[in-house]
Amino acid sequence: MSFRFSPGTLDSMAGVFAPPIKYRLGTGGGRPKSTKGGGAVLGVSVASMFPKAESGSTTSRPGLQAKAAFGGGSQTRMSGRAVMATDRTSRRVPEAIVRITGRQHGGGHVLANFAYISRLGYGDGKELGLETSEGDALRDGRDMQLLAKEWHDFDMDGDARRKGATSISMILSMPTGTDPKRLKAAALDFAHEEFANRSWVAALHVDRDHPHVHLTIARRDHDGRRFHPNRDDLFRYRQRFAEKLRGRGIEANATPARARGIDPRHESIAVIKMRSKGQVPQLDKSRMLRAQRYRTQGIADPVRAFLAERQATVRATYMRSITELSASPLAADHLVAQSLERFVATMPEPQPNSLRADRAPVDTSKDRADRRTTPMPSRVLNVPPLVDTGIDNLQALHTKIAARSSVTREPLATIGGQGSSTPSVAERIRKVGEGGRGDKGKSNSDRGGTLSDRLREITEKIATPAQPVDLTRASEIIRKAEDRDREKRERDRNRDRDGPNR
C-alpha cells in the first residue's frame, strides 16, 4: 500500500518547496495569459449559467504549483516525490546551486569568457579543455576564437545591430567534498538534456574549496529563438541538476530557502566576493542605514512581521505533513515524520536584513584613513634597563658632538689633538662612563654590567690618534673616476651616431 498526501497538504507543501508561478510576457518562463476573444467570452458566459458539480476531497487534484514542485504524474507519484524531498530537507542534504554569473555581448566578450573558464594562458598543467555541445574538447585559442566568431555571426544574423547578449554564463556547483568527476558528468548530462537545441561550452574548476562547472550557452538556439531564463527556469535547472547528481550517487537537494528554515538573502556573487576580500559592499551599507533609521525612530522592522508570518505558514505545513506521515502504515514514513519533527524544532527564528546588518563587518576604510594620520604606537616595550650601562649617555653625547662638528665643519681627526683646547672625545666618553659606574669603591665584580668590555674597547679605539688623510690619493681616485665616466659617455654617443645597431 502506497502513501498519498491529501490534495490540500500537497498544495501547501508545493507552496513551500517551489516558488509561486508567475506569468510574465517576454521572459521565456511559463505561458502568458492571452486575451480572450469574443467566442471565448461567449463560451464562458454560457458555462456560467449551469451549476457546477461540487468537488469533494476524493475528486480534487493538485494544482499546477504542485506539479512544478514534485513533477507530473499521478497523485501517488507526486506524494512519493514530496516525501523524498521532505526527507532530504529534514536531513539537511547539500543544495545544488545553479546561478547566472553574467552575459557576454559580442564575439570579443565571448572569447574572453572562453579564455577565463578554460584558463587559457595560465601555463602548462593549468589550462583546461572546453567541453562543447558537439562532444569536442577545445584546447587551442584559435579554435575558441572561431567558435566565438560563429556565435557572434549567428546572433547578428544579418541585422545591423545586436539585440541583447550573445551568450549567457552559468555556474553549477556543490559544497566541499563532492566528487569532481561525477559532478562534471552530471553537469554535462544536464546541459545535453536541457540545452539540446543550443550550442554551449563547459569547464570544470577545482581551484576553489568547492568544485563547480562553468557553463556558457549561446543565447539563440539552432532555430533562431532567444531565451531569457527567469526564476522559474532556474528552479527547474536546479531540480534537473540535482536529479543528475542523485543518479550518480551524490546526495543533492533543490529547495527554496524558506523550505530549509532560513531567510533568502538575494545577494549577487559580486557582493559575496567583496565580503571575502574584507570590503563592505553598498548593499551592507544600505542595510546598516536602514537598521539605524528604524532604531532611531523606535519602531520594529516591518519585514520581521512578514518573515514571521511566512515561517508560521511553513511550520503549519510541516506539522500537517507530520500528522499525515505518522498515520501512514509504512515504517519508513514514520521515520520521515520523526526527522521532520526534529527539523521543525530546530528551525531558527526569522531575521530581517536590518538585524543581520548589525553583525555585518563594519566599514574599515575610515579606520584605515585615521590610522594613516595617527602615529602608530611603538612595538618596543617601554621597560627600564635593569643595569645602567651608559649607552643612553653615550648616544646623547654622540648626537651633541655631531651637531657641533656640523656647525664648525672641522675634521674629526683634529678633535682631541694635542693643540686642541677642547677635551678629546675619548676623555669625555670615559668621564660619562665613569659617571655611570656608580660608587668607585666597589670592585668590578660588584659593578658588573655598568660598563661593558665592548664600550671600553670603543673608548680606547677613539683615544688613539687618527691617521692624517692623504689628499693626493683622494684626488687621484676622483680623477680616475671622472676619466672613466667621460670615456663611457663618448662610447654611448659614438654608438648611436649612425642609428641603432641591430
Please outline the helices and strands.
Layout: H1 7-17, H2 38-48, H3 64-70, H4 75-90, E1 97-104, H5 107-117, E2 130-132, E3 137-138, H6 141-156, E4 167-173, H7 180-194, E5 200-205, E6 212-218, H8 231-247, H9 269-276, H10 282-297, H11 302-326, H12 331-345, H13 353-358, H14 365-373, H15 391-408, H16 425-435, H17 453-463, H18 471-495
Antiparallel strand pairs: 1-4, 2-3, 2-5, 4-6, 5-6
Helix pairs in contact: 1-3, 1-4, 1-11, 3-4, 4-12, 5-6, 7-8, 11-12, 15-16, 16-17
Explain what the structure shows.
With 502 residues, the chain is α+β, with helices and mostly antiparallel strands. It has 18 helices and six strands. The longest helix is centred in the middle third of the chain and has 25 residues, at 302-326.
